[in-house]
Design brief:
The chain is an alpha+beta fold. The chain has helices at residues 2-10, 12-23, 55-64, 112-124, 129-132, 170-173, 232-241, 252-256, 301-309, 313-319, 354-363, 394-408, 421-431, 448-452, 476-487, 491-508, 548-551, 558-563, 570-573, and strands spanning 35-40, 69-71, 78-80, 83-88, 94-99, 139-145, 148-153, 195-201, 205-210, 223-228, 246-247, 264-269, 273-279, 325-327, 384-390, 413-419, 436-442, 511-517, 519-524, 528-530, 554-555. Helix 9 runs antiparallel to helix 11 (354-363) and helix 15 packs antiparallel against helix 16. The radius of gyration is 24 Å and the shape is globular.
């Protein structure tokens, strides 16, 4: 907290600017509006859904726009949204979606032509591919006939009902001449979802109002506001002071700081995030040319396996995550997705065993020197690796300390390298200037997207254009399994193929899963009357893979909230808690990839 207060003193001018913008959100309770404020520890990268890749942005867009289907709030399986029904041809290559009769927020009808235009734009415009390009790679053609949307595929695709692309209003977006330079900040936005974005101040807040034309019915609150904070400590102060009503995706220290507050409900459930180490096992571009400066020892699978055996995951969970996570004895799909989750067993399972790790390295010829540090078999270079983490992320600093100790026990030196979000993304996803890096993904109910980040095609191009790789992986076995699962329409059989893909990642170790973090959130019960998670039993609120939690929100009546001490004017009094994020204006992601510590999905 002292460090945070010191930063506030240094950033006094910036705070004043931020305070003016965020104080404008304060709502006089006498106006009688039902308003809920959500805190976020990252800012929107773009209000343009074709470009937005941050989790906060994609969450807001889920609240604004309709999709063909959405995860069912109970089962997480695909359920109707803008597509009220669908059929598929016997060969699985032609899908016909019946678009429901409803209206955009400006009163214009929603048609299949809107969906066809959206998909075709992504198929033909490179800029439009930024956020969701892979989702249409298997599309041969997309056409509209009245309310019928017809998608013809190049090959059968099991994930067709999990398409992550929001449907955009053609009559608005076809006027945009340069999609790659369009920020999408024209208000009020024209939407088909439960909320209409009406105001956005960069790095400060987004304000949304209930959509009276929403086909399910208008939300039960009048206004939803998303307030941006530059660090979790500030957001916790904001929640305690009543500046915000809900905060999600907390780290254990911030979550535990909420204990004992009678006005706050702590939400601790199984999460949808896999956290892992990304290892530079020999980064290459799509034409198989080496890129970057990764340590040559990491090209050796035996070295990667030794690293895996050296990691005490139980200790990381207990002492880095304060017990609020599950040790990862699987791969990149978290255990909440029971159909697709794979966990190692028998001889395949890697357990904490530094003696075995040392044995593997000894037998592979990596000898320890007088200083206890191993060298390459030819004696040319020591096993000294860099560990890339994000700046201003204390939990990653703590993780680095533990990994440094673990690897020292097997004769490997680890040096922490801190990078800001843009530099981190560039070095670990395009230029390959790293050895080991912290990584992770917020996985959707269908894990195809996270699996695709490990395909050969997702490596950067020779010119350095990012394809969205999460590991620079390119493996024939993994590729074959990916194509097989894509075509397998029998869900249990497909799940088995997906588990084989995870096993391949686990044994080859281009990534090493360390833990699955819990979903840690908090909200003020004097401001929020009820909220439904996804899934409905023991699920997620903020950051869920559906609009449902924020559509289902019910706020305490303004008069009652004031009587209980939950004043909306707390935002003015406590605006010091919300710090403007400086320097993000120049940041632009050109690939589908997480942008900061656990920001992507």
């Amino acid at each position: 907290m002292r460090k945070w207060l010191a930063r506030l003193a240094v950033l006094g001018v910036a705070l004043l600017v931020a305070g003016q913008g965020q104080a404008a959100l304060a709502q006089d309770p006498a106006a009688g509006k039902k308003i809920v404020r959500v805190g976020a520890t990252q800012a929107v990268d773009s209000m343009n859904p074709f470009l937005a890749v941050r989790l906060v942005s994609t969450s807001i867009h889920r609240w604004m726009y309709g999709f063909l289907t959405v995860p069912d709030s109970k089962t997480l399986k695909p359920s109707p949204d803008l597509a009220e029904s669908w059929t598929t041809s016997e060969d699985g290559l032609t899908w016909t979606f019946k678009i429901r009769q409803t209206k955009w927020s400006d009163g214009q009808p929603v048609t299949a032509e809107d969906a066809a235009w959206t998909f075709n734009k992504i198929m033909t415009d490179d800029a439009a591919k930024t956020a969701n390009g892979p989702a249409v790679e298997n599309f041969e053609s997309v056409t509209a006939n009245g309310q019928d949307l017809v998608i013809k595929l190049k090959a059968p695709q099991a994930s067709m009902l999990e398409n992550p692309i929001p449907i955009m209003p053609k009559h608005v977006w076809e006027k945009v001449t340069d999609l790659g330079q369009f920020s999408g900040d024209q208000y009020p936005a024209v939407v088909s979802g439960p909320y209409i974005a009406v105001e956005h101040k960069k790095d400060q807040y987004v304000k949304l109002k209930a959509n009276p034309n929403y086909w399910r019915g208008a939300p039960k609150i009048d206004e939803l506001q998303v307030i941006f904070y530059d660090n979790p400590a500030a957001s916790i102060v904001g929640l305690k002071n009543g500046e915000i009503d809900l905060i999600g995706r907390l780290n254990p220290p911030e979550f535990e700081a909420l204990k004992g507050d009678p006005n706050i409900v702590q939400w601790n459930q199984q999460g949808r995030r896999a956290n892992y180490l990304q290892i530079n096992h020999g980064a290459t571009t799509t034409d198989d040319k080496p890129v970057g400066d990764g340590h040559p020892a990491l090209k050796d699978q035996k070295v990667r396996q030794a690293l895996h055996y050296a990691i005490d995951k139980d200790k990381l969970v207990a002492e880095v995550q304060n017990g609020l996570a599950k040790p990862a004895h699987g791969s990149i799909v978290p255990p909440m997705y029971t159909d697709f989750f794979w966990e190692a067993g028998g001889d395949t399972k890697v357990t904490y065993d530094p003696a075995k790790a040392n044995q593997i390295l000894d037998e592979a010829g990596y000898k320890k020197g007088a200083d206890g540090v191993r060298t390459m078999p030819d004696g040319d270079r020591k096993l000294e690796f860099r560990f890339s983490i994000h700046t201003d992320t204390p939990i990653e600093d703590k993780l680095a300390e533990y990994l440094t100790g673990f690897f020292k026990e097997i004769g490997i030196t680890l040096t922490t390298k801190k990078l800001d979000s843009s530099k981190f993304t560039e070095e670990t996803g395009v230029t390959g200037l790293f050895d080991i890096a912290i990584s992770g993904w917020s996985v959707n109910p269908d894990p195809e997207e996270v699996l695709a980040t490990h395909l050969c095609s997702r490596r950067p191009t020779p010119s350095g254009e990012g394809g969205g790789t999460e590991s620079f992986y390119c493996d024939e076995t993994f590729e074959k399994l990916y194509q097989e699962q894509l075509k397998e329409l029998d869900r249990p059989k497909r799940a088995e193929l997906i588990k084989q893909m995870q096993e391949r990642l686990y044994t080859d170790a281009p990534v090493i899963a360390i833990y699955y973090t819990n979903d840690l959130e908090g909200y003020r019960k004097d401001r929020i009357k009820s909220v439904t998670s996804v899934p409905e039993q023991d699920g997620i609120l903020y950051g869920a893979s559906s609009f449902w939690p924020f559509y289902s929100l019910e706020a305490v009546e303004p008069a009652a909230a004031e009587a209980e001490g939950g004043s909306n004017t707390g935002l003015i009094a406590g605006v010091v808690g919300a710090v403007v994020v400086i320097g993000l204006g120049a940041f632009f992601l050109t690939r589908r990839r997480k942008s900061a510590a656990d920001d992507r999905e």
